Amino acid sequence: MALSFLTNLNEEEFKNFLKEALSEIIGEGLTQVKNNIPEILDVKQAAEYLRLKITTLYEKTSEKTIPHFKKGNKLYFKRDELQEWVLGGKVSTHEELQSQAASYTMRKK
């Protein structure tokens, strides 16, 4: 039955069918992965999430360069804040820097 359905599709319809099916499958998989990571992470989970050594994570908390919480002797991290921290370290490309320099020069004239 499914084979007859697929053979009745032209090439463009078949491609669209595959795109939609793969998007649905991938979307469900990503949702499951995200749901498996808790919102509040301990040191070990945060180190795994960031792919850092635990000692490196401790260094960053003592330098106060990474967002964290302390309750008693325990350190905790919010997953969303860690993601924002990582994304905040974006390095600009040469093109972006040239564009910024050009717009700065135009504003200062």
Topology (elements, then pairings):
Layout (H helix, E strand, L loop, with lengths): L1 H6 L3 H26 L3 E2 L1 H8 L3 H9 L6 E3 L2 E5 H9 L6 H15 L1
Antiparallel strand pairs: 1-3, 2-3
Structure characteristics:
about 110 residues, mainly alpha, Arc Repressor Mutant, subunit A, 3-stranded antiparallel β-sheet, 6 helices, 3 strands, flat
* Class by alpha and beta content: mainly alpha
Q: Any idea what the shape is? A: flat
How big is the Rg? 23 Å
Biggest β-sheet description: 3 strands, antiparallel
What's the CATH architecture name of the largest domain? Answer: Orthogonal Bundle
In whole angstroms, the N-to-C terminal distance is: 70 Å
Adjacency order of strands in the biggest sheet: 1-3-2
Q: Summarize model confidence as the mean pLDDT.
A: 85
Question: From N to C, what is the helix and strand string?
Answer: HHEHHEEHH
